[in-house]
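User: Continuing from earlier, I have the next pair ready.

Assistant: Great, send them over.

User: Here they are, in order.

Assistant: Folding the first of the pair now:
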Amino acid sequence: MPNRKKGNRLLRSCNKTLLAGVASLVLLGGCSSPASRHEDAAQAQTLPVDYEKALVLMRSSDYGAAIPVLQEFSAANPELAGPYINLGIAYRQMGDADAALAALDKAVELNPGNAAAFLQRGILYREKGDFQAALGAYEQALTLQPDYALAHRNIGILYDLYLQQAAQALTHYKRYLELQGNDDKTVSGWVIDLERRAGSSQASVTR
């Protein structure tokens, strides 16, 4: 089993990076494919005041205050997937896993091609201890968007800490670093650690 201190450090870093990325990128439609990025940029310039308020609250980690704002916005705009993803994030941060999953299910119903919704599902399943469901959700996110950096990071953590598959973890960590421009020193450290452990294991086998 993984070192507890290392595991806690990995998860804290993972959650911090994930939220910083998702809360700023999940806008109105919730599209996460490369083709939608120009649309997202246009939306970012014209976000409704109440939705922008919800995102500001989430970036400030005030999830309890963000939830009613997102609920009201979603009720007025029921065709939009993005607010439901952010609701899922907010509910998860408040410890309400059932409400989080319901919000993410609604996001997927509205936009089945939404990689961000599947990523959030994966995180939720991982926290509930359902690692195979988490793996399936991450894989679906990457099927929809192969260059989704945060999905590679999260599935790498799942393989590393929970499934004990170092080779798979290394593949996804390295792909994440390629997509991020190799500027994440934390993940670079994980890669070095895994490669060192893999080298030590190989040396033991050949002695």
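And the other member of the pair:
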Amino acid sequence: MSETPEKIVRTEAEWRALLTSEQYQILREKATERAFTGTLTENHDTGNYHCAGCGALLFLSGAKFDSGCGWPSFTLPADSSTVAEHEDRSFGMRRVEVTCARCGSHLGHVFPDGPAPTGLRYCINSASLTFTRQEP
């Protein structure tokens, strides 16, 4: 059974000191990086994807797939308790925003157009993630 992760709370000044300007805009202000520009979009190494804001394990490389959308895409999170989903009605659209359950950072969105077995596509900004390569 999944446990709720311990919450990380920081001041805006602490977030600004911790994150790059791009990361701050994405994680704290819900911006989006331009398609096909993220450093992890074409990453095919085996390993783990963590929250750039707090280090929480979010996604495993085995769940990553090439959706052609221009952002790293995953079929499911590493654990259902590591991400939170929220209705997002910004820009006149109705979407589901994905945030880190531990620190509340914006990650991207989840769409119901992914492959089996989940049918989901977690479309995540590269700047909201760090990657730890797993050695063979």
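Worth noting for the second one:
The beta strands are 47-51, 57-60, 64-65, 73-74, 83-88, 95-100, 106-111, 121-124, 129-133. The domain at 12-133 is CATH 2.170.150.20 (Metal Binding Protein, Guanine Nucleotide Exchange Factor; Chain A).
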